[in-house]
Write a structure and sequence with these properties.
Blueprint lengths: L2 H6 L14 H12 L10 E6 L2 H10 L5 H4 L2 E8 L1 H9 L9 H24 L3 E4 L2 H4 L1 H7 L6 E10 L27 H7 L1 H13 L1 H10 L4 H9 L2 H17 L7
Antiparallel strand pairs: 1-2, 2-4, 3-4
Length: 259
């Protein structure tokens, strides 16, 4: 496919055919990831490929019981990784650091860039993916299951396989609501209402068309999409809890040294 078609045709795929992804195709996808931009060309990330059904079964709970974790033939987990480089520095008698929050951010960005390259290569080959925010939210549990050493933290993950569904592409906010020229231009109330007008309608309709989501919305007495986001999906309490999980795990994984 043309690159533009791949980009604009992206959909999150949660249902997969019972069909393996060949190692040859998987290698093509991983090689695309390895060619991604990287800070200082350090490639401060690692990619964990999980095919084993037993391991996927254990990851299912950590990934908040999302069905594609066990249904997809492959899971890819992209980790910020300075473990490898720190070992190299030590062997070369160079100062061994990269054990701070800035280093984690560099590794997280590198991992995310690699993940998107892999995603585009996979979709170009006719495969489907679904990113899972649970990778970072439950990084401690996932890190333990993947046997990650210090200075390695899971950041981005997704399921991978041949689609068994054909959902319509989801809407996006309009370009004028996302792109700023020269400097950031803050939004007026009118700008915000205009930017989110279609999202308010389309998102609400999507919830009302799904019986389970509609029932949840009605039980909570929610009246608009903004309330769905902040009362049902992404509560303040859950984000505080996940934030603390990440910070605690960064400390455990040797990314919070300030000395």
């Amino acid at each position: 496919m043309e690159l533009n078609d791949v980009i604009h045709g992206h959909r999150s795929i949660r249902e997969y055919e019972d069909r393996e992804v060949s190692q040859e195709l998987l290698d093509q996808i991983l090689n695309a990831g390895i060619r991604a931009s990287s800070s200082g060309n350090m490639q401060s990330y690692s990619i964990i490929v999980t095919r084993d059904k037993e391991i996927k079964g254990k990851l299912y709970d950590a990934h908040m019981e999302q069905s594609m974790v066990v249904d997809a033939p492959v899971l890819l987990t992209f980790c910020a990784d300075f473990n490898r480089m720190r070992k190299w520095l030590d062997l070369k008698e160079a100062p061994v650091h990269f054990d701070n929050f800035m280093s984690f951010m560099i590794g997280a960005i590198d991992a995310t860039l690699a993940s998107q390259n892999c995603a585009l290569a996979a979709e170009n080959a006719g495969l489907g993916i679904c990113y899972m925010g649970s990778t970072l939210a439950n990084c401690d549990r996932i890190g333990e299951l993947l046997n990650l050493p210090p200075n390695v933290v899971p950041v981005v993950g997704y399921s991978l396989g041949y689609p068994a569904e054909n959902p319509a592409p989801r809407d996006r906010l309009p370009k004028q609501g996302l792109v700023h020229y020269e400097q950031y231009h803050d939004y007026s109330d009118e700008d915000i209402l205009d930017i989110y007008r279609d999202r308010d309608k389309n998102g609400w309709n999507r919830y009302m068309e799904n019986p389970k989501l509609k029932e949840m919305t009605e039980q909570l007495g929610l009246k608009n999409l903004a309330q769905i986001y902040t009362i049902a999906k992404y509560t303040k309490e859950s984000h505080h809890e996940f934030s603390q999980t990440v910070l605690n795990y960064l400390d455990k994984q040797n990314f919070m040294n300030n000395g």
